[in-house]
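In the design runs reported in the main text, the only information available to the sequence generator was the tokenized backbone. The following block is the verbatim input for one such run; it is reproduced so that readers can re-run the procedure and compare outputs position by position.
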């Protein structure tokens, strides 16, 4: 078992990866913490809490009046099988 962490900066000035329909470039900052576990020799399980924040409301948020927010938090679990 291992604890993992990461800090991120997304900078997409031409909006190639993320289209915001804004004139300004897409920029967001993020961080995540998680746990990696290898339950079997060819399998890995990761659970990660990840947060992103940016200047513009581009993240989906059902509780916001316009359905968008400037930040996003998500809990993700993945299972990898490798040979």
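Verbatim output:
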């Amino acid at each position: 078992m291992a604890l993992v962490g990461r800090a991120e900066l997304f900078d997409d000035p031409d909006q190639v990866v993320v289209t915001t329909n804004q004139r300004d470039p897409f920029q967001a900052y993020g961080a995540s913490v998680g746990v990696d576990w290898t339950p079997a020799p060819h399998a890995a399980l990761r659970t990660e809490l990840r947060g992103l924040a940016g200047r513009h409301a581009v993240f989906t948020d059902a509780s916001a009046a316009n359905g968008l927010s400037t930040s996003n938090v998500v809990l993700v679990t993945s299972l990898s099988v490798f040979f």
